Structures are given as C-alpha cells and as structure tokens.
Amino acid sequence: MIALIQRVNFAEVTVQGRSVGRIGRGILALIGVQAPDTDACAGRLLERVLAYRIFPDDEGRMNRSLADIGGGLLLVPQFTLAADTRKGMRAGFSGAAPPVAAQALFGQLVAAARQRHPDVASGEFGAHMQVALENDGPVTFWLEAHAG
User: Fold this and answer.
1) Which residue, of 13, 34, 39, 95, is most buried by count of CB atoms within 10 Å of its CB?
2) 84/89 Cα distance (integer angstroms)
C-alpha cells in the first residue's frame, strides 16, 4: 500500500459539490492499493502515517507525529498512485488492486484509523472527487507498506 502524505493547514474533499471529508491542521493522505496488498499492509501503513514525524517541535525540527499533535487525518483513495509510469506516455494499472479488493482494504484502513485516532475523515472510493488543501511547508512524503 502507498500513502502520499502532505502536511496541511486544512484539506477538504467534495463530491458533486457536497463536502464528504474535511480536516484542519493535520495530514492529507492519498492512498494507493496495489494488487499484492493485505490487511497487514493496511495496518502497517496506518502505523506509519500516524507516527511519521512531520510536524515541527519547539525548535522547528520535524520531530512530532500526527498522534503527538492530535491533528486531523483525511484519507483519500487514489488508484493512480499504483500506476506503472516507467515507460511510454500512458500509465499502466496492472499493478493496482482490483476495485473490489482495493475498496475493502481502503475501508479497513479508514475503520482502523477511526479506532486509533480521534479526527479522521475520508473521501469516497470510486467517486470523482475534488480535493482542496493548503500544504504547509510544503511537506510531502511517500510512504509504503508491503506484504511479507
């Protein structure tokens, strides 16, 4: 599983003009599910997202995690993160998980996040979404969790 995380001052996802998820200061995580991903991958990725130190401490160093600051977490499914872009002029998606499996793992990730963190919102799987955000820094990291 892949998470492209961004430190944000705020972020919001809308679908057909209605807000489906919104956070203040925290992390916007775009989530890609790959074909071999498992429940264990989702659990490990969530651990990393919640504990990854991307927020400044009193000296301005990135030493605080989302859990440390109690910020919001907005999880947005984005299958294009699983694209193969190594050659050609069009992405290939053979490495992405099938939609039914990806939706199940994304749903599991959201449910686990809501059990472990107080402020969790999400986008809608399979919907055409608009994502608005104010990236703080900018600070953006690519995190992965693999089976095995």
Assistant:
1) 13
2) 11
What tokens were used for 30? 């775009």
Q: How far apart are CA 113 and CA 116, in angstroms?
A: 5
Q: What is the pTM of this model?
A: 0.95
Residue 85 has which token pair? 């872009």
**Span 2-23, pLDDT tens digits:** 999 999 999 999 999 999 999 9
87 conformational bin, left if phi > 0, alpha if psi -120 to 50, beta if neither: beta
For residue 13, the cross-strand partners are 21, 131
Active site (catalytic) residues:
78-80
From the list 75, 77, 79, the residue with the least C-alpha distance to 96 is: 79
Instruction: Give 87-144 pLDDT, tens digit per residue.
Output: 999 999 988 999 999 999 999 999 999 999 999 999 999 999 999 999 999 999 999 9
Report H helices in 6-72. 39-51, 66-69
Tokens coding 25: 């200061």
